[in-house]
Amino acid sequence: MDTGQGSAVTGQYQLSHLRSIEAASIHIIREVAAEFERPVLLFSGGKDSVIMLRIAQKAFAPGRIPFPVMHIDTGHNFPEVIEFRDRMVAELGAQLIVASVQESIDSGRSTEESGADPSRNRLQTRTLLDSITEYKFDAVFGGARRDEEKARAKERVYSFRDEFGQWDPKNQRPELWSLYNGRHAAGEHIRVFPISDWTELDVWQYIGEEGLDLPSIYYSHRREVFRRDGMLLSTGPFVTPRGEEERFEAVVRYRTVGDMTCTGAVESTASTVDDIILEVAASRLTERGATRADDRVSEAAMEDRKREGYF
Amino acid sequence: MELLRFATAGSVDDGKSTLIGRLLYDSKAIFEDQLEAVERVSLQRGNDYTDLALLTDGLRAEREQGITIDVAYRYFATPARKFIIADTPGHVQYTRNMVTGNSTADLTMVLIDARKGIVEQTRRHAFLASLLRVPHLLVCINKMDLVDFDQEVFDTICAEFTAFASRLDVTDVTFIPISALQGDNVVTRSANMDWYQGTSLLHHLETVYIASDRNLIDSRLPVQWVIRPHAAEYHDYRGYAGRVEGGVFKPGDEVMVLPSGLTTTVASIDTFEGPVEEAYAPMSVTMRLADNIDVSRGDMICRPHNKPVVGQDLEAMVCWMTDKPLKVGDFLMLKHTTRWVRAVVRDLHYRLDVNTLHRDEGASTLTLNEVGRVALRVTQPLFYDPYRRNRQTGSFILADEGSNITAGAGMLLRPN
Ligand SMILES: Nc1nc2c(ncn2[C@@H]2O[C@H](COP(=O)(O)OP(=O)(O)O)[C@@H](O)[C@H]2O)c(=O)[nH]1
Ligand SMILES: [Mg+2]
Known about the structure:
The complex is a heterodimer of chains A (311) and B (416).
Chain A: E1 9-11, E2 14-15, H1 17-35, E3 39-42, H2 47-60, E4 69-73, H3 79-92, E5 96-100, H4 101-106, H5 124-135, E6 139-141, E7 158-161, E8 189-192, H6 200-210, E9 221-228, E10 231-234, E11 248-253, E12 266-267, H7 273-282, H8 287-291, H9 301-308
Parallel strand pairs in A: 3-4, 3-6, 4-5, 6-8
Antiparallel strand pairs in A: 1-2, 7-8, 9-10, 9-11, 11-12
Helix pairs in contact in A: 1-2, 6-7
Chain B: E1 2-9, H1 16-26, H2 32-44, H3 53-56, H4 60-65, E2 72-77, E3 81-87, H5 95-103, E4 107-113, H6 120-131, E5 136-142, H7 151-165, E6 172-177, H8 201-207, E7 221-222, E8 225-227, E9 239-243, E10 248-249, E11 254-258, E12 262-271, E13 274-275, E14 279-280, E15 284-289, E16 300-302, E17 309-320, E18 326-327, E19 331-336, E20 339-352, E21 359-360, E22 365-366, E23 371-384, E24 395-399, E25 406-412
Parallel strand pairs in B: 1-3, 1-4, 4-5, 5-6
Antiparallel strand pairs in B: 2-3, 7-16, 8-9, 9-15, 10-14, 11-12, 11-16, 12-13, 12-15, 17-23, 17-25, 18-22, 19-20, 19-24, 20-21, 20-23, 24-25
Bound molecules: guanosine-5'-diphosphate and magnesium ion.
């Protein structure tokens, strides 16, 4: 198959599809830097935010990225991801803000879900919105892609949020050509999704072409897991098998990076970018469908969380 | 691999969802979990068939009402190209969504039910594609299986469409007879229509020639951002970052900066990977100039012998996109390339009926989803090209000064 590798130019004055979407993403990031007072880039350590960070780096080279990077830290992270985050940020010389869900809980802003193995997925929204208020951010870059999920397929590149951080899917601003409207009143903000048009395959092809570094959990490795709701969850400090759930060792990798409590692994021997490109091209499940418990709650789980101000 | 963006439009039940579903499924862009979810919901609703429209109708309100409200973007790829589909609803009350979907499209796909032939919505879709100057129009005559794959039905519809399209500004029209349901002429040529000499729909999408659609003549670089690194090694570095919106720039080219009118030459065209020998649309680059002249965001870099129109009095076709009507005397914010200016509506010459193309010169307002020819005056000159020459430097959006919502979209005409 054509992995998109090789020449960036496909004919005379014609860019390859990866270089066209890259150029569009650079254009978006520059528009935001120019028109907003306080942008911030959300960095989870996952592959989509790695790509966003690389594109931001390209947009302002040889200058530095003119805005900080923020991680909404649930405290339920894969240790490999935190280690990777710190290394990346140090290499780029970017400013890192860590907004802690644990601190929101400790200060009484958020309440831990009850029951065994509580997920902090939903609690991220409170911490995120509080940080946006605290730092007076008016533009927040997120790495969401439209191919991930059906509510996201409808979201604009510039997604307006009211003073409560809410998304109103029925009242979105029309978005034409590449003329983005970021106008807003004080207290409101815009979520910006510069890689909206990228697919999972594009992301992997780009990682391959650019030789980008990723947290090791994206590649095949051996770990202790158990099966819950058809997903392979890693045993660890935040989740433990209950009742009938049996621990076993498996050769797995992760397709997305989220909390240890709700992100499932897929069985895979893909240990290089090229292996993964072949695996993704042949996969019959979306990355979220395969591995995210948070999206399985209901038909409109993502739409509901997004309305409340989620990523 | 190239990228092709296309918009789809069709009346309810023409088979748009079925066709998109088939294209996605055959190119493996629909995944099993998505299909299962759709099957589960179809079953819950008591449908006796799997409603592929549920794949694209992503919002709760859309699923509840069983209609497509908003533009949905879908993605698929074949070994030849990557495709981005802007799937838009067809009703007249969603004209603004069709305008939005068409604004970035290389091709518009219009669906016609072979049994019904050309209807009002067909004419509206074709008109909007021509208004937005989508370079390629693909007319799919669907449900050929229900008319016995009859060539005469196909020929009659083609002739009628061609007669109508002659009143529009469309240059490239292709007709394909298909059955979205059974797959005839969708991915492979159909044995049921040996009288049809053309290619399959997917083959057309993979091969339609788009390289010459971009403007490679009028060099335009609207400046987005000035790069001045605060580092000793780049002490004197001053780069003008932006996306090339037309023409080709090369190091050594003589260029002019607007509005100052000062001329200099291109010292280098930089990217993260290093300098490049030439830059063309839609590349995002950083240009350095030989002379130290004052350039800031909102300025336009062009060639001295090929300048855009510089003007404060604008003539444009405007599509109105909000409930509060547009009237003469209204003040609005206008964004064109990389600058925002204030605008006042000087005149509404006529309102255009998007179904009949009739011009109503007595109109005093444009209401939601209406299109009309408008005269505007702006606070500072814009550097623009007529939309028919360049879709990027010829377009603008209008925002409401109070609510900030995007209220309209405009396509600039040559000044009077
Ligand atoms: N016989 C036949 N039926 C079709 C064809 N394409 C679509 N249909 C049917 O027409 C109905 C409406 O199709 P749908 O794709 O929902 O139309 P949409 O409203 O344009 O999205 C469905 O019952 C389809 O099965 C076709 O080529 N032949
Ligand atoms: Mg439909």
